[in-house]
Write a structure and sequence with these properties.
single chain; 382 residues; mainly beta; six-stranded antiparallel beta sheet; four-stranded mixed beta sheet
């Protein structure tokens, strides 16, 4: 019997490095010079809620000043701003750092973001960065391993510093959490969700693929239009132009992780791949491709906890229907979490025995490779 192989590896982009690949990761915003200038004016003339002062101020050309005595005096200014896309909706947001102080008081530096929406910009809850600090760098960045994040380099106070002259360089990172607020807790962030579906018929065949994830399809290549109807050659070439079907989906909620798994030291990952990928149903070439790619791309960490997502969870959360039906079905979804120390965890069973659905052959049997990018769920992710 032929098999349908679907290793949904919550970790990578193209598993087969020799093949051409699409661009993975967070796509940068395309902003014209006029749009950039307009956004800068929005930041300089916006209305902001202040955390410490417990009031709002409306800046005019980047500054605000009111009051004439110690009880009511306040002065605020825009220190830095950066255009970004924090909520991944391909619309420009503006992250800002506002400094404010009273008469003779310390200067408080607060970070917040103006998120674009149908009715204009909405400010996130401010986050206090510190008192009398000095901002050196403020930028936004993203990669296949992380969502859009704000990076701040500033000078804070060391014990020997005077109040007005901080000298200790510090760094801070923030991202937009599931509640739409800025957070520096990267411990449970689902980074990326970008699978690629490889099809390998035994002969040239017309194949229909339907996706039904519990979430929203964000991007597909080629165009999906409620289904893919493609012609696939024996070598896996799809419609004479694609090596795989690509899609990105934002799940409604995080994937449920099992209690048990493997705890592997970073130096032993190679051996873990050698032993377990074959047991999970991958052939030697597939296992070698996956191993080579991930040993290069996994962020270095003392240890990793590796968990195999339950087949029922995979099928429920990441619905997939393919016609004609294969003889058998194997889906593998892995979660990798960087950790400081080994964790005691009972070994999971191989998915080869956990899930294999045998179906009647109809002469159009084929194999597939369905690969997922992973989520890093620890602050050790870059």
């Amino acid at each position: 019997m032929k098999k349908l192989l679907l290793p949904l590896v919550l970790l990578s982009a193209p598993m087969f490095s020799p093949r051409p690949s699409f661009a993975f990761g967070h796509e940068p915003l395309s902003i014209t010079a006029n749009q950039q200038a307009s956004l800068e004016q929005t930041a300089k003339n916006g209305t902001y809620e202040l955390l410490v002062a417990k009031r709002s101020v409306t800046l005019k050309n980047g500054a605000f000043k009111a009051g004439d005595n110690p009880d009511n005096f306040i002065e605020a200014k825009l220190v830095r701003s950066v255009v970004c896309d924090l909520n991944d909706d391909n619309k420009p947001d503006i992250a800002v750092i506002i400094e404010h102080h009273g008469m003779g008081s310390a200067g408080f530096f607060e970070l917040s973001a103006l998120l674009s929406g149908e009715n204009g910009f909405t400010q996130t809850k401010p986050v206090l960065l510190g008192e009398n600090i000095r901002i050196e760098e403020f930028s936004a960045s993203s990669s296949m391993w992380q969502p859009e994040e704000l990076n701040i380099v500033y000078l804070g106070h060391q014990e020997s510093d005077s109040h007005a002259n901080p000298t200790g360089q510090k760094r801070a990172r923030y991202f937009l959490d599931d509640d739409g607020q800025l957070s520096n807790d990267f411990s449970h962030i689902q980074i990326v969700k970008k699978p690629a579906l490889y099809l390998y018929p035994v002969r040239t065949a017309k194949i229909e693929v339907r996706l039904s994830p519990e979430g929203k399809l964000i991007r597909t290549i080629p165009d999906y239009n409620n289904r893919w109807r493609v012609t696939v050659q024996k070598d896996g070439m799809i419609d004479s132009g694609y090596h795989y079907l690509f899609y990105e989906v934002a799940l409604d909620k995080k994937i449920e992780l099992p209690r048990h798994g493997w705890s592997v030291r970073y130096d032993n990952l190679s051996g873990w791949f050698d032993t377990n990928l074959r047991e999970m149903g991958l052939n030697q070439a597939e296992a070698e491709d996956m191993k080579e790619y991930w040993l290069k791309n996994l962020p270095e960490s003392p240890c990793y906890t590796i968990k195999l997502i339950e087949p029922d969870v995979v099928n429920k959360r990441l619905g997939l229907k393919i016609q004609p039906k294969p003889d058998s079905l194997l889906r593998v979804l892995l979660n990798f979490t960087p950790t400081e120390n080994p964790k005691k965890s009972r070994r999971q069973s191989s998915p080869a025995s956990a899930e294999r659905a045998s179906l009647p052959s109809n002469g159009e049997v084929f194999s597939t490779m369905d690969t997922w990018l992973t989520k890093c769920t620890d602050r050790h992710c870059p």
